[in-house]
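Translate sequence into structure tokens.
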Amino acid sequence: MISKKLAIASVALISAGLLSGCTAAGKDAPTSKIRQVTDGVEKDSGALKLRDFVLVAQPDGSAVLVGTVVNEDSSADAITSISANGIAGVVTGSGALAQNAPVIFSGDSANAHAAFPGLNLTPGSRSDLTVTFGKAESVTLSVLVREKTDIFADVA
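Result follows.
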């Protein structure tokens, strides 16, 4: 009697474990399908959130930055410099990072622009991009280089 109850309990525990894990759905389980939604790279420096960073290669050999920086802290900060593969970016627009006031590089809502002359990057490759701030620690990202086509066709 005890061994029958033990066997039923064992089967119930094993079944619960299998049904709650990814193996129950096999290779088509939702958790096996998690992937990055965009080409953009994301990273944080304390309360500063860097989102969707990519470089778009231009026909003249330069590259243009696409991405957004948001400050979630009540204390203001500022972007002091941006470089790609050691080449300083030409940054225009405000680099001021007030709380929840994003700095957006490129696109319809852009309030800043960063271009990197003479990088001569190949679309599909990666580039080291370093963003330096007034207060927060600097951040280095390995960003994807995109071709100036599709959703990046108007990035200049």
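Note: The longest helix spans residues 2-20.
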